[in-house]
Specification:
The protein is mainly α and 199 residues long. It folds into two domains: 70 residues, no CATH class; 92 residues, no CATH class. 47% of the residues lie in helices and 5% in strands. Bound molecules: adenosine-5'-triphosphate and magnesium ion.
Length: 199
């Protein structure tokens, strides 16, 4: 239970665990305390070791939260990602295998595909089955073989057939995907370009 404050009759107003599971929309006039309310919630999440992600294009709330983190010592991982700082680069590879978690590669691939389709502007891959197939092949290989994005370009380059063959051999943990890759490898250039690059 998060204490928000007190009402006019001095009764405590709290947010229950259940309240925090659903979406919230914080509205109020300028200077009425929206940002401080969010900061209060974030402080609670930090203390209670709950995972959260704060995106703050203005940076003032971010700065206040960073100050709080530097004031309190937390035994938890805090990843600060400030894109406005050219001198401070944080490595982030969404294709890294989710180590330690029980997440199956296919589940991780599904999530990545959902994220890509979202950025693409379509809710799912129902109308783009070829794209879905190629993405799942590429993403699975990237995750299984611990690739980064720049390496992925060789995966879809017809000329890199030999390199691909070596990689495909390492996909024994995902035999169905491995077989699909082998099938793709049999394609002639024009068919490959049509099937993989939509040319
Ligand atoms: N619960 C509170 N008790 C006392 N002061 C508060 C409280 N909440 C906010 N304030 C003060 O009110 C001021 C404005 O708060 P805040 O920045 O959170 O407002 P805001 O709604 O985010 O404003 P804006 O619309 O400009 O972003 C701050 O200086 C803050 O210290
Ligand atoms: Mg604000």
């Amino acid at each position: 239970m998060t204490l928000l404050g007190f009402d006019a009759l001095n009764r405590p107003i709290r947010l229950s665990e259940e309240d925090t599971q659903t979406h919230r929309y914080v509205i109020g006039s300028s200077g009425s305390g929206k940002s401080k309310f969010l900061e209060w919630m974030i402080r609670g999440a930090l203390r209670e070791r709950q995972g959260f992600c704060l995106l703050d294009p203005h940076g003032t709330l971010y700065e206040d939260v960073v100050k709080y983190c530097s004031h309190e010592v937390f035994r938890r991982e805090i990843i600060l990602l400030d894109l406005s700082r050219p001198d401070w680069v944080v490595g982030f590879n969404p294709f890294q295998k989710e180590l330690g978690s029980q997440v199956d590669t296919s589940v991780q691939v599904d999530r990545l595909m959902t994220a890509v389709m979202h950025a693409w502007g379509t809710p799912n891959t129902d109308e783009t089955p070829t794209l879905a197939r190629v993405l799942s092949l590429v993403f699975t290989l990237m995750i299984e073989l611990d690739f980064t994005l720049p390496q992925a370009q060789h995966l879809i380059d017809y000329e890199q057939k030999e390199l691909r063959t070596q990689w495909i051999e390492q996909l024994s943990k995902t035999p169905l995907i491995q077989q699909e890759w082998r099938n793709l490898q049999q394609l002639k250039r024009a068919v490959w370009n049509a099937a993989v690059l939509f040319e």
